[in-house]
Amino acid sequence: MAPPTLRERRRAAATQEILDAAERHITEHGPAALSLRAVARSLGMTVQALYHYFPSRDALVTVLVTKAYDDLADAVQAAVDTAADDSALPRLVVAAEGYRRWAIAHPEHFQLLYGTPLRDYAAPTDGPTTQATRRMSSIFERELFADFTTEQLAAADAPSLSPALRTYLEQLPHYGLGHLPPPATALLLSAWGHLHGLVVLEVFRHTSFLGDQQAEIFRMAMQNLLEDVHRRIP
Predict the structure, then answer these.
(1) How crowded is residue 11: how many other Cβ atoms within 10 Å of its Cβ?
(2) Is 139 within 8 Å of 76 (Cβ atoms)?
(3) Which end of the chain, N or C, is more open, meaning fewer C-beta atoms within 10 Å of its C-beta?
(4) pLDDT, tens digit, for every residue of 156-180?
(5) What is the tens place of the pLDDT at every residue in 122-160?
(6) Residue 76 sits in the same domain as residue 43
(7) Which domain holds residue 172?
(8) Please, is 93 exposed, middle or buried when counting C-beta atoms within 10 Å of its C-beta (0-12, 13-18, 19+)?
(9) Does pTM top 0.85 for this prediction?
């Protein structure tokens, strides 16, 4: 491939500078305060000049959300990759703790992903934000079910599923191990809700009364969650 031209390099550098300024603005003021005008002002640009790089606030938000998901997925994957081979800690628990650490270290960016939705923003259908969430899903799906066959997952002892729910779960896409039977999908969604709910409570300081014990409680909860899910799979 031909090397980028000077104009392309300048545009890439300016785009990165805008993204860095937007991330700083989110860190300092929260996602709800994000606007093209505020970002442009911090860079000494006019809004009209910024439109040459991002035609709307939604375009900028989509890039920021995608990057935040990718950063979070990188942190989770790095936690799994660097786990000691002889560690007694299950890889699902390691992944969950990597997720928790990133969320605590980047509360404003976590809020951009999982907090109050930004007014009038809608992510593009099957766009880059969707692709980024699929990557995250694949990590947890893999670490939760990698040791089981499709036949075992189909026979999982999940709560009785209505025909309508079973049909719906059959149609959901999966990204870690390929197709998941409905009972496994139900267990995955339940486990995700438990994991994510505990992190949300901590990031938004609803469990601050636990102080330094929050990490130990989270690990205990994840170990119990994993044992419960695996106990349901023959």
Answers:
(1) 14
(2) yes
(3) N
(4) 998 788 999 888 888 877 666 567 8
(5) 888 888 988 888 888 899 999 999 899 999 999 999 878
(6) no
(7) 56-231
(8) buried
(9) yes
Q: Terminus-to-terminus CA distance in the chain, angstroms?
A: 52
How many CB atoms sit inside 10 A of residue 103's CB?
A: 21
Instruction: Indicate the SS3 state at residue 175.
Output: coil
Do 166 and 137 share a structural domain?
A: yes
Quickly list DSSP for 13-37. HHHHHHHHHHHHHHHHH-GGG--HH
The single residue listed with the structure tokens 């509360």 is 107
Residues in the chain: 234
> How far is the C-alpha of 156 from the C-alpha of 232, rounded, in Å?
5
Question: Which amino acid does the sequence have at 55?
Answer: P
Enter the DSSP assignment of 176.
Answer: S
Domain end marker among 38, 55, 72: 55
- Whole-angstrom Cα Rg for the chain: 21
